[in-house]
Amino acid sequence: MLNIKDHKTINMFDPFDFLGPKRRKMLGESWAGIFRDHVRHVLPVDLLARYFSAKMGRPTNELVAMMGAMLLQQMHNLTDQETAEQFVFNIQWHYALDITNNSGRICIFTEAIKRFLVNLKRQHKNDFNELDLTLRDRYLKKEEESAFSMVKPSESTKTLQMVAEDLFFLINRFCSRPDIASMKTYQLMTRVLKEQCITEQGENTDEPRVILKANKDIPSDSLQNPSDPDAGYSGHKGKGYQAQVAETYSNEKDAGTLSLITYVDVQAAHESDAVS
User: Fold this and answer.
1) Residue 55 in 3-state DSSP?
2) How far is Cα 252 from Cα 254, in angstroms, rounded to an integer?
3) What is the pLDDT of residues 234-256, one digit of tens each?
4) Does the pTM exceed 0.90?
5) Measured between alpha carbons, how far is 233 from 236 in angstroms, rounded to an integer?
6) Are strands 208-212 and 197-201 parallel, antiparallel or unpaired?
7) CA 63 to CA 86: how far, in whole Å?
């Protein structure tokens, strides 16, 4: 069965943001950035796709990544074994071939849950102690917390579903407690649930279940960082904020003419420049 990823739709979350701004910039300016932006989009995948059914058979590996890997093998003069190793472990190959996972979304869920549990422990210790120890340790123990940053791409979907279910459980557990539901950290969890998931009635049960939205269905003004709830996301500018600045202007060539900033408006990154 044919498997071709939609590489034209911009990611709501930069899957390589975990590298930090300096390493992220180096990655974009390397050969991998050139391949990603100028070569990957023109690979003749349609010539290969005609030999696979869109509905029948075992799913193929992602064809753009496979064809790109074959090209990179020739470019770097690698053996088949060396190519497989680069494909699995080399971050430049991942960037060039758009091999991504859900690590950005996992961080949003885990950070929201962690902040809530820390707050719950501080303000409602008895309620905190009644929670399952495994759940508490998963988000508050240092070694467990660091494990989320080392999730393998093949396991990211399963991990994301797990943290979504944990978030859903905590929201339902304390939704009838106004003193807890009014906490800002609880409200952040409900925002994450609304933006990232949908809930529906489970099959053969009265219990609702949580289902993750596709990346393309998440709004651009969704929560990017539980520590900075007002930040937005732009596919061109990344996470954070933008600023609109107005200043005086004069056609006179007099060097003594004074220019003054008359207006500054700080906005979330997702807001359109056209309506500023």
Assistant:
1) coil
2) 5
3) 444 444 556 666 776 666 665 56
4) no
5) 9
6) antiparallel
7) 17
